[in-house]
Structure formats: C-alpha cells, structure tokens
Specification:
By secondary structure, the protein is an all-alpha fold. The protein has 16 helices and no strands.
C-alpha cells in the first residue's frame, strides 16, 4: 500500500510537471492569466487536492527522475531527500541506508538533510523541538520558569548561562533592585561582591548619595532645619580643619622615613599620582571656602574616582 501511495504521488507530480514544467529562477514572468499558480490551481481543483499538495508532488517529481526513484522507499522520504541540492549527492544518498536500519524512515531522511525530526531522540534534537514549540514568547516564558524550578535542571546550567539568564530577568529596575537586595543579604555573596572594585565603588557612591538626599530632604522639610544648618556649618568647619591637620601630621610622621631611601620607579609613579590628587583636592577646598561652590570640575572628579 505504501508503494502504491508512492507511485500515485509521483504520478500526480509527473502530470503536474507535464502541464507546468519547472522554470529556472529569474526567468521571464508570464502573464497572470497563464501563470503556474493559475494553471496548477485549476488542476488541483479538478482532481480534488489542495494547491500546496499538488505543488509539493510536482517539485518532488522534478527532483527524482523515474529511473532514480527507489522501490520500497516512501514518497515522503523521497520528498525530504529531494532537499539535497547536488543531484549526484541526492541520488547516492537514497541508496545508503542509515546505520543499523533496514529501511529509510522520514526522521532518518530529515537527519540526513539537517531538518527537524518529528520524534526527537538525541539531546540536540529534543532541544530543537523545544525551541520550535516555544517560539511564542508567552510559551517560552512559561517553559523557562517551569524548567528553572527543577533543581536538577538548574544545577546543570553553566555559570555563564546562569549569569546571562539573571541579567535578562533583571533588566527591569524594580526586579533588579529586589534581586540585588535579597542577594546582598547573604553574607558570602555580599563579601564576594564587594571584592569587585567597581561594585564596591558603586555601593559606596550610592550610600553617599542616599545620605545627601536625606540631608537635603531634612533641610527642606524640617522646622528645626535652620538651627541645625548653623550647627552643621560649624561642624563642617571643624571637620575640614581637622582633615587638614591630620594630613599634615601624617605627612610629618611619614616623610622623614624616606631619608636615605630610594623608591622604585613604580612606587614613585604611584606617589606622584596621589600627590596630584592631594593638590587638586586642596585647590577644591580653597574654592569651596572662598566661594561656597563645592561642585568638582570634571578633571578632579576623574582623578578622585580613578581608583
């Protein structure tokens, strides 16, 4: 019965080819009234087939001349193997049965041409099938969420892929904030995260910014803000003078220790870089004291945050 079906499909394809031979790509476009589409549509209606079925049979027949068709091999397998572009390779492929198989199956033919199988066996075939079923974003999201709930699955995901997943899921700032807060509550995670210079700087910067915002809010809203403001100014003066004295005292203790000692080239470069920062900071202090403007210029900001 399969052989009869195969002969019947090829007969239909051959008849369609007689009516409308395959045309080379890029050839002249016929008048719409005499196009291949119109001609084959009429034939399909006359014999009770869909146009797509008729066109598929015609194409397969064009790829398999009568003397190259194999008895015992279904039309479906012939049609799949018709996807092999090189004619000699196509004709040779159908005579080479899959390893350990007594006959061709449609899935074996699909493996031969590299298309998706109906019954996946290997891990890669199963992955391909899942991707095909999860093309819809909502389906993909549901499947991903369900799979990641399985500890055995999550354990086998590589660290790099886990990081990518987390980054994708935390593109939303609200989600990222919640996730980061929960993770930093874990002491081991917080310790390792703070080992990264950039992360540590951002956390310190965020803390300073939060304090500044809280201070600004207090000054704007608190009824006792004017009195506190005066105290703050006095405290800031004391802090500034103390910082200057601390630096001078520390330098006075440290610099004499350099007598008769020659620093290496690398050490000298580092000291000079830090001295430049100190000088720039002193200029900043003088500007703030004289004008009340405390904004850093771009160069100073770059120098102080270059670590």
């Amino acid at each position: 019965m399969v052989e009869q079906q195969t002969r019947g499909q090829f007969t239909i394809g051959d008849r369609a080819l007689e009516i409308e031979p395959m045309r080379p790509r890029g050839g002249p476009v016929p008048d719409a009234a005499w196009s291949v589409e119109v001609s084959l549509t009429l034939l399909a209606e006359d014999i009770g087939l869909t146009l797509s079925t008729l066109k598929s049979a015609r194409w397969a027949a064009s790829r398999w001349p009568a003397d190259q068709r194999r008895k015992g091999v279904s039309f479906s397998v012939h049609k799949v193997l018709a996807g092999i572009e090189i004619e000699e390779e196509r004709f040779a492929a159908i005579d080479k049965l899959p390893d350990g198989k007594p006959r061709w199956t449609v899935d074996d033919a699909r493996r031969r041409v590299g298309t998706r199988v109906e019954t996946p066996v290997s891990p890669q075939e199963k992955v391909t099938a899942i991707h095909a079923l999860a093309q819809d974003d909502q389906v993909a999201a549901k499947v991903t969420g369900d799979l990641l709930k399985r500890p055995q699955v999550a354990a086998k995901v590589t660290q790099t892929d886990k990081v990518r997943v987390v980054e994708e899921f935390t593109r939303d700032e609200a989600v990222a904030t919640t996730a980061a807060t929960n993770l930093l509550r874990r002491p081991d995670v917080a310790f390792k995260a703070m080992s990264d210079d950039t992360a540590r700087f951002q956390v310190n910067h965020a803390q300073a910014e939060r304090s500044r915002q809280a201070h600004d809010y207090h000054e704007r809203t608190s009824p006792i803000a004017p009195a506190v403001w005066g105290i703050d100014r006095t405290v800031e003066f004391l802090d500034l003078v103390t910082a200057c004295h601390s630096f001078v005292a520390a330098a006075g203790r440290t610099v004499p220790g350099l007598r008769d000692r020659t620093l290496s080239e690398g050490e000298r470069v580092i000291v000079h870089q830090n001295v430049a920062k100190v000088k720039a900071t002193l200029d900043w202090i003088e500007t703030a004291v004289d004008t009340g403007k405390v904004d850093m210029d771009d160069e100073l900001d770059r120098m102080l945050n270059s670590e």
